[in-house]
Predict the structure.
Amino acid sequence: MQVSSAISGMKESATLAVSAKAAALKAKGVDVVGFGVGEPDFDTPEPIKRAAIRALEAGQTKYAPTPGDRAAREAIAHKHRTDNGIDCSFEHVTITAGAKHAIYLALQVLIERGAGNEVIVPTPAWVSYRPLVELAGARCIEVPARLEHGLVVEPGAIERAITPRTVGIILNSPSNPCGITLPAASMRAIADVLARHPQVTVISDEIYEKLVYPEVTPGIAHWSIGSDPRLAGRTITVNGMSKAYAMTGWRIGWMCAPGDRGGFAREAIKLQGQMTNSIASFALPAIVEALTNGAAEVERMRAVFARRAQLIGRLQASIPGLVAPPSSGAFYTFPSVASLLGGRTAGGRVLDSAQAFAEALLEEHAVAIVPGEDFGECARAHVRFSFACSEEQIIKGMERVAAFVAGIRQEIPTVTGTG
């Protein structure tokens, strides 16, 4: 059968590939410490589950409107108005099968195929942004951040990347994979740049917005760029239930696009109606419950993640060759291992790439991490650790990493990278 070259040329998600390898080893009885998957280890809070169960028991099992019912969309719009300062109504919201689906829809509606459109992506960036941009028919223009700047992208670099072909930019704070929350001053400086370029639509991926750690970086806080009046009409804010509410398997995301009097949102809903239609109807009351009554549970989980961020930061800093900015958001740390590349492991593996580093760590010490290559060209000497696991697992895993690093012997010239 024929397979589209656009699909056959697409790479598998690096994060999912690592998860599959780790799962295969665990199935063989290997005690794997998993730092690969970006998934909270908490269960969904009980009141949220009960809301869905009640809906099932009440017979809420039929088709729902494509963008979701009004109650759930109203709850999302209210959240954006009160939490994020985004002026919107329920008509500007469509509920999607995860935040990734919302980004896919936004790009498909935004990009004109064959027109040479470009979308800017500050890197290191989530592995799916580039494939989603390219699948929609645009060029992905990377704007690299530097380790010496804390992996915070420079606003001037974004401005230099904007051309007449630029139609969009994808921003992500807190960041996957960097584990940083962009300071408000940096975000506002980026907004100043974008305000000068009215042809650029902003897709703001805020899936980790509730996971911010002033305990790590005092004074750090999330700021939604869609609240800037200059950009409000051309910002698409993407969010969902997966990370903050421990609801990854529910597949609930959304986009909020107030611009053009809801015109962009209507076009996205039209496309969604030809794809998935609505999410499962009985999940809609769970959204209302989570956004109305879930703040205490979110804060409980956030506080645990903050302690883990501090713990893994201390342990990582004690291992020579791992260099990363503090994890002020999400649940990742993204160290450079540049000074370790070019060495040979105790098991005999030559570390000629971050991929080799990650593979050797898994094979020799049963620790799963994600190599940095797919997070952007500037991330080729980095690896990602997810600390969405217990403190006991963090301690055990980092002890193994320390042993692995201690066994590396430099035998060939070090490979250079952002570190």
